[in-house]
Design goal:
The complex is a heterodimer of chains A (about 160) and B (about 800).
Chain A: E1 2-8, E2 11-17, H1 23-30, E3 49-52, E4 55-58, E5 71-73, H2 86-93, H3 103-116, H4 122-128, H5 139-154
Parallel strand pairs in A: 1-5
Antiparallel strand pairs in A: 1-2, 3-4, 3-5
Helix pairs in contact in A: 2-5, 3-5
Chain B: H1 17-25, H2 30-34, H3 49-56, E1 75-77, E2 83-87, H4 96-108, E3 115-119, H5 136-140, H6 146-165, E4 172-175, E5 178-181, E6 184-190, H7 191-195, H8 228-232, E7 248-252, E8 262-266, E9 275-279, E10 282-287, H9 290-299, E11 301-304, H10 316-322, E12 326-332, H11 336-342, E13 345-353, E14 365-371, E15 378-383, H12 388-399, E16 406-410, H13 424-436, E17 440-443, H14 446-452, E18 460-468, E19 474-485, H15 499-503, E20 514-515, E21 536-537, E22 540-541, E23 550-558, H16 571-588, H17 593-600, H18 604-616, E24 634-644, E25 651-661, E26 667-677, H19 684-703, E27 733-739, H20 752-769, H21 780-798
Parallel strand pairs in B: 2-3, 7-17, 12-20, 15-16, 19-23, 26-27
Antiparallel strand pairs in B: 1-2, 4-5, 5-6, 7-10, 8-11, 9-10, 12-23, 13-18, 14-15, 14-17, 18-19, 21-22, 24-25, 25-26
Helix pairs in contact in B: 4-6, 12-13, 16-20, 19-20
The chains are: A alpha+beta (about 160), B alpha+beta (about 800).
């Protein structure tokens, strides 16, 4: 066990954990966050995605020993049902969800890409979501939501 | 840390005055909940959407101990005018809970904000069996469902108002839950004043008249889904997020190969606070944290016996033909052999469809709190199961606890599409919790899910034959298929149906060869009979087509792997064969695929969806293959397919446009146009979401998906070894056409488009290349091999 200092959605934590523990288990079990989810545990699907110092990472394979001093944002950290982030609003507006289990990956990779490329084309957005899975196949709606978010950014 | 707690249970002994008031608003007396299950939640009434979620995802006290044919088991109206509805049909992300909200508001003439829906909790909601088979809408809008309960309640409320106001029922009207006299609206009485907090004490009335769909104002609109704001903000509680006080983490240890049994278990290298549970070939570990449980699984030394030798995957389809089978005829006309002998031409083709997975994004998870065993044992299970009621009955046998003492509470998991690992993981969690006496959460690994959690959609082999007269008209249709089965959904008698039940020592019922009696009535539930048959059995014809000389036989053999319903079970595989074959006949007689189908269709609604999809796709009317396409490079084509799902449950047609790279064999679907007629549309955007998702999921299954194994074990154990259509690949343009007849019964829609995609793509590839794909998935290697086969044939023909 070793103490790890990190920040999640603006709150600082010092946790005494097995440094080999995946970040996802700490977020889900210790901090009781519902946003990042266990899909495969192999960094193959993206359901566990969080932003680590602003970059999307797969929290299911990210060891606690590597997050010392990091700032972590989950989809809870973007906004709330009462006060959603524009990307969350875009997904609500487009009803871009079936079960919603994949959303952390789609929204956080999508947001990161669109923030940097607000003029992105549909094709570029699809490519930016490379290696993410949505098994309900709400793909079309999700891409529409990201295009709407890009439009919002440009406005 | 700030966290919105959506699921705080309250002990009845510690109820506050606010709690009492909330319960009263929801129609319960103190006596009601004191005799109930012991925990309850406030916030059912006048709820905003997040509060509605809280109501669904939290334990509720059992409101009323009444039978399912009683209105009170479906609806409670409180004195503050709030309405609570109870349903046994669950929402897995298909949006059906939102539709049920619309239904309640519509039939009762109350604002949506006043409604709270509770679904799929075995201690609270009416037992409606399993949520499956595109039956939620037909059931809830049917004669024994929620709509009939609501109509019965509304008529009873009008009767009460008539008595109270002294005015005949036909002179009353209702708005926002207030019944008033048409000629003098100042004379009025509200639902809350009439029944608030009291029971209806009436039986569902089959003669009560639900609202005419042409009068709908809430149904028929694209009401946004109530769960989406919580989902996109990470607030939504999935079964993976259920956290109980004192909860431990369990992991399972499955056999390394199929058929292996436990010889010995050595836990000497495990820390003392890890508990190991063994029951026959079921092994699990329980620890304080997930990480400790994973480490314990790695450290546990288990010696397993040899497994069984699996059928060779390359020879699977030959193997299937050779096994003893259970046989079932859908149709058996007595003139089939005679007509085949008379035919001027007989065409035949064989279609092959592999084992496939549900491949749910979440590896399955459940939480169980089991205390004791025997007649005094109790259990609560938080489950993402489609079958909460059968799950309760089945786990009762596994635990040796009366089912009356067991409560299964549905909490959404990821989309399941059928019998994924959601039921078997409930058994795992229950067995572990019973052994350790504490709540246990079991989270499968990806390999657990894919190799030992899934009940796969079984493989199919279909032989089709059609006899044509000298005009090229089909005069006889002969369909013979083979498939496999092992296990099934949970039920009240055989826990060995479920993987964990079998590992724990309960026998899996074995397939009894035999059957093959002529059918006694026409039932095309599995879509084995093609749309073009008349479906005549005992002189009654129930099909959608005109071909009367028809034989449809299905052989079922024992599967080496557990199998179960996977979105559009049998319907998809049969439709792939039927809708490919009708296209082959069309090409043989050089007819346009749409016009050729129309020759044999008799059902006007199926004809309408076929024409609607073709028209929306701007269908290029001509025979396939497309003239002038070169034999190399990238070529394009279009294909179509149509079906009446389950023979009575939703009409659909689908056009696929493809690009085929003839040098690499890669198929890209560039456009999908779908049409749907499932009766009155409840929520147009929700229906479109289902049609689009089903079509793309079907595309993934058609192009990529196949369960793989070696001689001993499943080798498809993750997303690399079971590749599915991911993000990053070109997406087809998608268009949907909704047909919305107000005068037809409501039918299912969630499985229609997926049923059609494989055939439509194969037909489009034929149109583009002249090459017929008869084996799913259409991987580049397989497409290239088929293209090379055609080229060889063409060269031979030339010489």
């Amino acid at each position: 066990m070793a103490p790890v200092n990190f920040t999640v959605n603006g709150t600082s934590y010092t946790l005494d954990v097995d440094p080999a523990t995946p970040l996802l288990f700490v977020l889900a079990d210790e901090l009781q966050l519902n946003g990042p989810k266990f899909g495969c545990g192999l960094a193959q699907c993206g359901a566990c995605t969080v932003l680590l110092d602003g970059q999307p990472v797969r929290s299911c394979v990210r060891r606690m020993s590597t997050v010392e001093g990091s700032e972590i944002t989950t989809i809870e950290g973007l906004g709330t049902p009462e006060n959603p982030h524009p990307i969350q609003t875009a997904f609500i507006e487009e009803q871009a969800v079936q079960c919603g289990f994949c959303l952390s990956g789609i929204m956080l990779y999508g947001k990161t890409f669109v923030d940097q490329n607000p003029n992105a084309t549909e094709e570029q957005i699809v490519q930016a979501l490379n290696n993410l899975l949505c098994r309900c196949y709400a793909h079309r709606r999700m891409v529409r939501a990201l295009l709407r978010y890009a439009q919002e950014l440009r406005a | 840390m700030k966290r919105r707690n959506l699921s705080k249970p309250i002990d009845p002994a510690n109820m506050t005055p606010d709690t009492l008031a909330a319960l009263k608003r929801a129609g319960f007396s103190r006596r009601d909940f004191l005799k109930g299950a012991g925990v309850l939640i406030v916030g059912f009434s006048m709820a905003s959407w997040p509060e509605k979620l809280a109501a669904q995802n939290s334990p509720q006290v059992k409101p009323l101990d009444v039978a399912g044919d009683q209105v009170d088991s479906w609806i409670a109206i409180a004195s503050d005018e709030s309405v609570t509805a109870y349903s046994g049909k669950c929402d897995f992300g298909q949006g059906f809970a939102t539709v049920q909200y619309q239904l309640v508001a519509e039939e009762l003439f109350v604002p949506l904000d006043r409604v709270t829906l509770i679904y799929c909790d075995t201690s609270i909601t009416p037992d409606q069996g399993t949520t499956s088979g595109s039956q939620s809408t037909p059931t809830e809008f049917g004669p024994s469902g929620l709509r009939q309960a609501l109509a019965t309640a509304r008529e009873a409320l009008f009767q009460m108002a008539s008595e109270q106001l002294g005015v005949p029922v036909d002179q009353l009207t209702v708005q926002d839950g207030v019944i008033s006299v048409i000629s003098d609206p100042s004379q009025q009485v509200s639902y809350g004043q009439l029944i608030g907090g009291q029971q209806f004490n009436i039986t569902l009335n089959r003669n009560a008249r639900p609202k005419d769909p042409s009068q709908y104002t809430v149904l028929g609109t694209s009401l946004p889904r109530y769960d989406i704001p919580a989902k996109v903000t990470g607030q939504y509680e999935y079964v993976q997020n259920v956290r109980r006080t004192g909860m431990l983490h369990g992991k399972v240890v499955r056999p390394p190969v199929v058929g292996a049994t436990v010889v010995s278990v050595d836990q000497s290298s495990l820390p003392p606070d890890v508990q190991v549970v063994v029951k026959n070939d079921f092994i699990g570990v329980v620890a304080d944290t997930q990480q400790q449980a994973i480490q314990a699984v790695a450290a546990l030394q288990v010696t397993w016996s040899q497994g069984v030798t699996l059928p060779n995957q390359q020879g699977l389809y030959d193997y299937m033909r050779a096994q003893p089978s259970r046989d079932s005829y859908t149709v058996l006309a007595d003139d089939v052999d005679e007509m085949l002998a008379r035919a001027a031409n007989v065409l035949s083709a064989m279609y092959l469809y592999p084992y496939q997975m549900h491949g749910s994004l979440a590896s399955s998870c459940a939480v169980a709190d089991v205390q004791g065993s025997g007649p005094n044992g109790t259990a609560t299970i938080w489950a993402a199961s489609q079958s909460v009621y059968p799950q309760r009955d089945s786990v009762a046998l596994v635990l040796g606890i009366p089912k009356e003492n067991i409560r299964v509470i549905f909490v959404e998991g990821s989309g399941c599409y059928g019998l994924n690992g959601a039921d078997t993981v409930c058994f795992d969690a229950a067995l572990l919790s019973q052994a350790v006496g504490k709540p246990v959460r079991v989270q499968f690994t990806r390999k657990d899910e894919m190799a030992w959690g899934e009940s796969y959609g079984p493989a199919y082999l279909s032989d089709l034959r059609a006899g044509l007269d000298d005009q090229g008209r089909i005069i006889v249709w002969d369909h013979e298929a083979w498939t496999l089965t092992k296990g099934d959904r949970p039920n009240a008698t055989t826990p060995g149906n479920i993987i964990t039940g079998a590992l724990a020592g309960f026998p899996t019922p074995s397939l009894m060869p035999g059957g093959g009696d002529p059918p006694t009535s026409y039932r095309n539930n599995g879509n084995a009979a093609a749309s073009y048959g008349a479906g005549c059995v005992n002189r009654a014809c129930g099909g959608t087509g005109t071909i009367t000389s028809e034989r449809v036989l299905t052989h079922t053999i024992a599967s080496p792997f557990f199998t179960g319903p996977l979105r559009s079970p049998a319907r998809l595989q049969n439709t792939f064969a039927n809708e490919s074959f009708i296209d082959e006949v069309a090409a043989f007689v050089r007819a346009d695929p749409v016009q050729h189908r129309l020759l044999y269709l008799s059902d006007p609604r199926l004809i309408a969806v076929l024409n609607a999809a073709a028209q929306a796709a701007n269908w290029d009317t001509r025979p396939s293959p497309k003239p002038g396409n070169p034999l190399t490079g990238v070529v394009t084509g279009r294909g179509i397919a149509c079906v009446l799902y389950e023979g009575n449950n939703g009409y659909s047609a689908l056009v696929a446009e493809v690009q085929v790279d003839q040098d690499t064999g890669k198929v890209i679907v560039t456009r999908i146009v779908t049409s749907q007629d499932s009766g009155p549309v409840s929520n147009p955007d929700g229906l479109r979401n289902q049609m689009e998702g089903g079509a793309l999921q079907g595309m993934s299954r058609a192009l990529r998906e196949e369960v793989m194994w070696d001689d001993q074990k499943i080798t498809s154990i993750d997303w690399r070894t079971y590749p599915v259509f991911p993000f990053g690949e070109p997406l087809p343009v998608m268009e949907t056409v909704l047909i919305n007849p107000p005068d037809k019964p409501q039918r299912g829609a969630g499985e229609c488009t997926i049923t059609l995609v494989a055939a439509a793509i194969a037909n489009a590839v034929f149109d583009a290349t002249g090459t017929r794909l008869r084996q799913v998935p259409f991987t580049p290697e397989r497409v290239l091999a088929a293209l090379n086969g055609l080229r060889l044939k063409q060269r031979l023909n030339r010489t």
